[in-house]
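Quick question, first post here. What does this chain look like in 3D?
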Amino acid sequence: AVVSTQSTGERLLENTGNFYQKEAQKLYEQNDVSNYMIKVIEKLDEEELRLRKFIHHTSISPCKKECVNKLIADIQDRLLDEYKVMLKDEHVEDLSRLYILIRRLNEGCKKMADIFHDHIFENGKPSIELMARGCTPQEYVDALLVVYRKFTNIVSNNLSNDQNFTDALNRAMTKMVNSTGDTKKYPRSSELLVRHADHILRKVNKNNSLSEIEDQLRNFIDLFKYVEDKDLF
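> Answer (accepted):
Ran it through. C-alpha coordinates below.
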Protein backbone atom coordinates (compact mmCIF):
# COMPACT_ATOMS: atom_id res chain seq x y z
CA ALA A 1 0.00 0.00 0.00
CA VAL A 2 1.13 3.53 -0.70
CA VAL A 3 2.13 5.41 2.46
CA SER A 4 0.02 8.52 3.09
CA THR A 5 1.88 11.77 3.75
CA GLN A 6 -0.94 12.92 6.02
CA SER A 7 -0.01 10.49 8.78
CA THR A 8 3.68 9.78 8.30
CA GLY A 9 5.16 12.48 6.05
CA GLU A 10 7.36 14.27 8.56
CA ARG A 11 8.53 11.05 10.22
CA LEU A 12 9.23 9.51 6.82
CA LEU A 13 11.36 12.50 5.83
CA GLU A 14 13.28 12.43 9.10
CA ASN A 15 13.91 8.68 8.84
CA THR A 16 15.01 9.03 5.20
CA GLY A 17 17.47 11.77 6.15
CA ASN A 18 18.89 9.80 9.08
CA PHE A 19 19.27 6.65 7.00
CA TYR A 20 21.08 8.35 4.12
CA GLN A 21 23.28 10.39 6.41
CA LYS A 22 24.63 7.14 7.88
CA GLU A 23 24.73 5.55 4.42
CA ALA A 24 26.76 8.46 3.01
CA GLN A 25 29.26 8.28 5.85
CA LYS A 26 29.65 4.51 5.44
CA LEU A 27 30.03 4.69 1.66
CA TYR A 28 32.56 7.51 1.84
CA GLU A 29 34.66 5.68 4.44
CA GLN A 30 34.62 2.37 2.54
CA ASN A 31 35.22 3.63 -1.01
CA ASP A 32 37.45 5.92 -2.99
CA VAL A 33 35.69 8.87 -4.61
CA SER A 34 35.20 7.11 -7.93
CA ASN A 35 33.44 4.13 -6.36
CA TYR A 36 31.53 6.41 -3.99
CA MET A 37 30.03 8.23 -6.97
CA ILE A 38 29.17 4.96 -8.74
CA LYS A 39 27.37 3.68 -5.64
CA VAL A 40 25.56 6.97 -5.02
CA ILE A 41 24.25 7.05 -8.59
CA GLU A 42 22.97 3.50 -8.07
CA LYS A 43 21.43 4.42 -4.69
CA LEU A 44 19.60 7.42 -6.12
CA ASP A 45 18.19 5.35 -8.99
CA GLU A 46 17.05 2.64 -6.55
CA GLU A 47 15.49 5.22 -4.24
CA GLU A 48 13.60 6.78 -7.13
CA LEU A 49 12.00 3.41 -7.95
CA ARG A 50 11.23 2.68 -4.30
CA LEU A 51 9.60 6.04 -3.72
CA ARG A 52 7.39 5.75 -6.78
CA LYS A 53 6.31 2.27 -5.73
CA PHE A 54 5.60 2.78 -2.03
CA ILE A 55 5.35 6.48 -1.17
CA HIS A 56 2.48 8.92 -1.65
CA HIS A 57 3.23 11.16 -4.62
CA THR A 58 3.31 14.32 -2.48
CA SER A 59 6.24 12.92 -0.47
CA ILE A 60 8.37 11.81 -3.41
CA SER A 61 10.05 15.15 -4.12
CA PRO A 62 10.90 15.98 -0.46
CA CYS A 63 12.33 12.48 0.09
CA LYS A 64 14.43 12.69 -3.09
CA LYS A 65 15.74 16.07 -1.99
CA GLU A 66 16.68 14.63 1.41
CA CYS A 67 18.61 11.79 -0.28
CA VAL A 68 20.46 14.26 -2.49
CA ASN A 69 21.27 16.49 0.48
CA LYS A 70 22.79 13.67 2.51
CA LEU A 71 24.58 11.83 -0.30
CA ILE A 72 25.82 14.82 -2.32
CA ALA A 73 25.23 18.27 -0.84
CA ASP A 74 26.68 17.51 2.58
CA ILE A 75 30.01 16.43 1.07
CA GLN A 76 29.96 18.79 -1.91
CA ASP A 77 33.13 20.60 -0.84
CA ARG A 78 35.06 17.33 -0.60
CA LEU A 79 33.76 16.24 -3.99
CA LEU A 80 34.78 19.54 -5.57
CA ASP A 81 38.27 19.21 -4.09
CA GLU A 82 38.49 15.79 -5.72
CA TYR A 83 37.16 17.32 -8.94
CA LYS A 84 40.36 19.37 -9.23
CA VAL A 85 42.36 16.13 -9.06
CA MET A 86 40.09 14.49 -11.66
CA LEU A 87 40.75 17.37 -14.05
CA LYS A 88 44.48 17.33 -13.43
CA ASP A 89 44.71 13.55 -13.92
CA GLU A 90 42.19 13.57 -16.81
CA HIS A 91 39.86 11.01 -15.22
CA VAL A 92 37.08 11.76 -17.68
CA GLU A 93 34.73 8.98 -16.53
CA ASP A 94 34.81 10.42 -13.03
CA LEU A 95 34.11 13.87 -14.45
CA SER A 96 30.95 12.44 -16.02
CA ARG A 97 29.88 10.81 -12.75
CA LEU A 98 30.47 13.93 -10.71
CA TYR A 99 28.51 16.01 -13.21
CA ILE A 100 25.57 13.58 -12.94
CA LEU A 101 25.58 14.11 -9.17
CA ILE A 102 26.39 17.81 -8.88
CA ARG A 103 23.80 18.93 -11.42
CA ARG A 104 21.16 17.84 -8.89
CA LEU A 105 22.23 20.71 -6.60
CA ASN A 106 21.31 24.37 -6.90
CA GLU A 107 24.38 26.28 -8.08
CA GLY A 108 26.33 22.99 -8.14
CA CYS A 109 27.26 23.21 -11.81
CA LYS A 110 28.21 26.87 -11.45
CA LYS A 111 30.79 25.96 -8.80
CA MET A 112 32.12 23.14 -10.96
CA ALA A 113 32.27 25.44 -13.98
CA ASP A 114 34.31 28.06 -12.09
CA ILE A 115 36.89 25.39 -11.22
CA PHE A 116 36.77 24.17 -14.84
CA HIS A 117 37.49 27.71 -16.09
CA ASP A 118 40.54 28.09 -13.83
CA HIS A 119 41.88 24.69 -14.87
CA ILE A 120 41.52 25.47 -18.59
CA PHE A 121 43.37 28.76 -18.17
CA GLU A 122 46.18 27.01 -16.28
CA ASN A 123 46.45 24.58 -19.20
CA GLY A 124 46.63 27.52 -21.59
CA LYS A 125 49.48 29.31 -19.85
CA PRO A 126 52.16 27.56 -21.96
CA SER A 127 50.66 29.16 -25.09
CA ILE A 128 50.93 32.58 -23.44
CA GLU A 129 54.51 31.81 -22.46
CA LEU A 130 55.25 30.78 -26.05
CA MET A 131 54.03 34.18 -27.24
CA ALA A 132 56.14 35.90 -24.58
CA ARG A 133 59.23 34.09 -25.89
CA GLY A 134 58.59 35.06 -29.48
CA CYS A 135 57.14 31.95 -31.14
CA THR A 136 55.99 31.50 -34.73
CA PRO A 137 52.30 31.99 -35.56
CA GLN A 138 51.95 28.24 -36.26
CA GLU A 139 53.45 27.28 -32.89
CA TYR A 140 51.10 29.67 -31.11
CA VAL A 141 48.00 28.45 -32.95
CA ASP A 142 48.92 24.80 -32.41
CA ALA A 143 49.33 25.37 -28.66
CA LEU A 144 45.96 27.10 -28.39
CA LEU A 145 44.22 24.42 -30.44
CA VAL A 146 45.50 21.63 -28.18
CA VAL A 147 43.78 23.30 -25.21
CA TYR A 148 40.63 24.20 -27.15
CA ARG A 149 40.11 20.72 -28.58
CA LYS A 150 40.87 18.94 -25.32
CA PHE A 151 38.31 20.85 -23.29
CA THR A 152 35.72 21.08 -26.06
CA ASN A 153 35.77 17.29 -26.13
CA ILE A 154 35.32 17.11 -22.36
CA VAL A 155 32.36 19.51 -22.46
CA SER A 156 30.79 17.49 -25.27
CA ASN A 157 31.57 13.94 -24.13
CA ASN A 158 31.54 14.22 -20.34
CA LEU A 159 29.54 17.29 -19.39
CA SER A 160 26.53 16.98 -21.73
CA ASN A 161 27.34 20.30 -23.43
CA ASP A 162 26.03 21.97 -20.29
CA GLN A 163 25.92 25.73 -20.86
CA ASN A 164 27.76 26.41 -17.58
CA PHE A 165 30.82 24.58 -18.90
CA THR A 166 30.52 25.93 -22.43
CA ASP A 167 30.55 29.44 -20.96
CA ALA A 168 33.52 28.54 -18.73
CA LEU A 169 35.46 27.26 -21.75
CA ASN A 170 34.64 30.40 -23.75
CA ARG A 171 35.70 32.68 -20.89
CA ALA A 172 38.97 30.83 -20.41
CA MET A 173 39.78 30.83 -24.13
CA THR A 174 38.95 34.55 -24.39
CA LYS A 175 41.28 35.26 -21.49
CA MET A 176 44.04 33.19 -23.08
CA VAL A 177 43.72 34.53 -26.60
CA ASN A 178 43.72 38.13 -25.41
CA SER A 179 46.58 37.81 -22.94
CA THR A 180 49.62 39.86 -23.92
CA GLY A 181 53.30 39.15 -23.57
CA ASP A 182 56.07 41.65 -24.16
CA THR A 183 54.35 43.55 -26.99
CA LYS A 184 57.33 45.87 -27.43
CA LYS A 185 59.57 42.92 -28.24
CA TYR A 186 57.19 40.30 -29.71
CA PRO A 187 53.89 40.33 -31.63
CA ARG A 188 50.71 40.14 -29.54
CA SER A 189 48.17 37.36 -29.90
CA SER A 190 45.98 39.06 -32.50
CA GLU A 191 49.03 39.84 -34.66
CA LEU A 192 50.14 36.20 -34.56
CA LEU A 193 46.66 35.11 -35.64
CA VAL A 194 46.65 37.66 -38.47
CA ARG A 195 49.96 36.29 -39.74
CA HIS A 196 48.63 32.75 -39.44
CA ALA A 197 45.50 33.62 -41.43
CA ASP A 198 47.61 35.32 -44.09
CA HIS A 199 49.82 32.22 -44.31
CA ILE A 200 46.76 30.00 -44.84
CA LEU A 201 45.30 32.23 -47.56
CA ARG A 202 48.63 32.35 -49.41
CA LYS A 203 48.39 28.58 -49.83
CA VAL A 204 45.18 28.80 -51.89
CA ASN A 205 46.92 29.31 -55.21
CA LYS A 206 49.68 26.82 -54.50
CA ASN A 207 49.70 23.05 -54.67
CA ASN A 208 47.91 22.46 -51.39
CA SER A 209 44.83 20.29 -51.03
CA LEU A 210 41.59 22.22 -50.60
CA SER A 211 40.50 20.01 -47.69
CA GLU A 212 43.73 20.79 -45.83
CA ILE A 213 43.22 24.53 -46.29
CA GLU A 214 39.58 24.24 -45.19
CA ASP A 215 40.64 22.39 -42.04
CA GLN A 216 43.18 25.09 -41.23
CA LEU A 217 40.62 27.83 -41.81
CA ARG A 218 38.11 26.08 -39.52
CA ASN A 219 40.76 25.88 -36.83
CA PHE A 220 41.55 29.55 -37.30
CA ILE A 221 37.86 30.51 -37.02
CA ASP A 222 37.58 28.50 -33.78
CA LEU A 223 40.23 30.79 -32.27
CA PHE A 224 39.32 34.02 -34.08
CA LYS A 225 35.92 34.21 -32.34
CA TYR A 226 37.76 34.82 -29.05
CA VAL A 227 39.82 37.77 -30.33
CA GLU A 228 38.64 41.07 -28.83
CA ASP A 229 40.89 43.30 -30.99
CA LYS A 230 39.50 42.43 -34.43
CA ASP A 231 40.55 45.73 -36.02
CA LEU A 232 43.78 44.12 -37.29
CA PHE A 233 41.72 41.75 -39.44
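The chain has ten helices and no strands.
The mean pLDDT is 88.
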